[in-house]
Amino acid sequence: MSASVISLKTKENFSQDLVIQQPPNGISLQGSIRVPGDKSISHRALMLGAIAHGETEIQGLLLGEDPRSTASCFQAMGANISELNTNLVKVQGIGLGNLQEPVDVLNAGNSGTTLRLMLGILASHPGRFFTVTGDSSLRSRPMSRVVKPLQQMGADIWGRKGGSLAPLAVQGKSLQPIHYHSPIASAQVKSCVLLAGLMAEGKTTVTEPALSRDHSERMLRAFGAKLSTDPQTNSVTITGGAQLYGQKVVVPGDISSAAFWLVAGAIVPGSELVIENVGVNPTRTGILEALEMMGADITKENEREVAGEPVADLRVRHSRLQSCVIAGDIIPRLIDEIPILAVAAVFAEGKTVIKDAAELRVKESDRIAVMVKQLNQMGAKVTELDDGMEITGGTTLTGTDVDSYTDHRIAMSLAIAALNAEGKTSIHRAEAASISYPDFTATLENICG
Ligand code: S3P
């Protein structure tokens, strides 16, 4: 059955249409799935491995385009990174402060995490000059959120619009420690400042309005950094000067990728899926809480800790979903899952409200505008808010032509919506999924078959 349900069409310009054709008697999804490695942890393992002393071994690295961008930037600055694969990647670190000046522009591709975290490392490399850029999406995303605190630490950074847009030029310097009160809950901002603080003399503190993902804190500590946290104030302090030492990192499956199957299993009648080996760090599990609020049938099995990160298998069964309100401190803990949560809300009874999520407008695409437009095109009832959306559930979706806007999470969210849409849906530029999930279509075929 799968061959007729899902097909890929490659166009002359090499972009791909993912075509999903609803069979007359519907589909149900069954099986056990492994999702690729966590994107956030993969970036951090490559970066810390590159600037640590000695060898870092990474198991389960995500082979998506984004970590590849990180690897190639750090290779260009002297780190020796073995061929990327999921079994074992070896990084020969060159020690803190020893990155070489690259002879060409560093290209972070589509990856905000690569560019923003790397800026903290580059700005604190005295005497070296760096230029950094990215693809057209990344060149339009705000960089002032990291450039400002780095400038407060004494960094020299130049770029378009007063240094707020890439391409950026960085003259590395010795930086001063600061206490930075970030106006946004952003792990990229927090991590950038902490990485810059690694080489500043004294204590650098970041306080954020709500807790964002804490993978940097966990991994920096494991590599030997001196770090303390104050959960009361959402603050983290790093003391500069400590050396980092290569470690063994085991990357768990990415809960942001698992989220597509959790929602698929919850909304497609008759489905039951097990997603194995998923990272369930509490700073990332907002998606589980939101789906639980909606009445989804999800159980955590085989909970364990692997290399400093909590991991579990997640079982999801189809169930009737209810609307809910998603707002406030939970937002940073499910920020990347809002497009797929919007799909869940389309199939829930009542009006779901998503607020306090204006950050979505500056992701790989404007995820509020794009999801509202694409879901409405399929027949959903979604209203755009400045900082989110209102979704009236219970409408029937009809397959049509939709577009990913080259945003990986939009492409995959629309594919899951298409599983419950009548007729045929064509998702244009679906190859964007390879940023974080190169095997997405193959897995989709497997569980439909
Ligand atoms: C990430 C942090 C989040 C998230 C992004 C990955 C990270 O961004 O949306 O996909 O790895 O630090 P912000 O820090 O901008 O919230």
Please explain how this structure is put together.
The protein is of the alpha/beta class and 449 residues long. It has 2 domains: 6-37 and 252-448, Enolpyruvate transferase domain (UDP-n-acetylglucosamine1-carboxyvinyl-transferase, Chain); 39-250, UDP-n-acetylglucosamine1-carboxyvinyl-transferase, Chain. The protein contains 14 helices and 26 strands. The protein has helices at residues 2-5, 39-51, 65-75, 112-123, 144-152, 160-163, 187-197, 215-222, 255-267, 286-293, 338-346, 367-377, 408-419, 440-448, and strands spanning 6-10, 16-21, 30-34, 53-59, 80-81, 89-94, 106-107, 129-133, 156-159, 165-171, 179-181, 203-207, 226-230, 235-239, 248-250, 272-279, 297-306, 309-317, 321-322, 325-326, 348-349, 351-354, 381-385, 388-392, 401-403, 424-428. The strands form 7 sheets. It has a 4-stranded mixed beta sheet with strand order 1-2-26-25. A hairpin with a 5-residue loop joins strand 1 (6-10) and strand 2 (16-21). Helix 9 packs parallel to helix 11 and helix 9 runs parallel beside helix 13 (408-419). The longest helix has 13 residues, at 39-51. The mean pLDDT is 97. Residues 40, 113, 186-188, 191, 212-213, 335-336, 359 line the site of shikimate-3-phosphate.
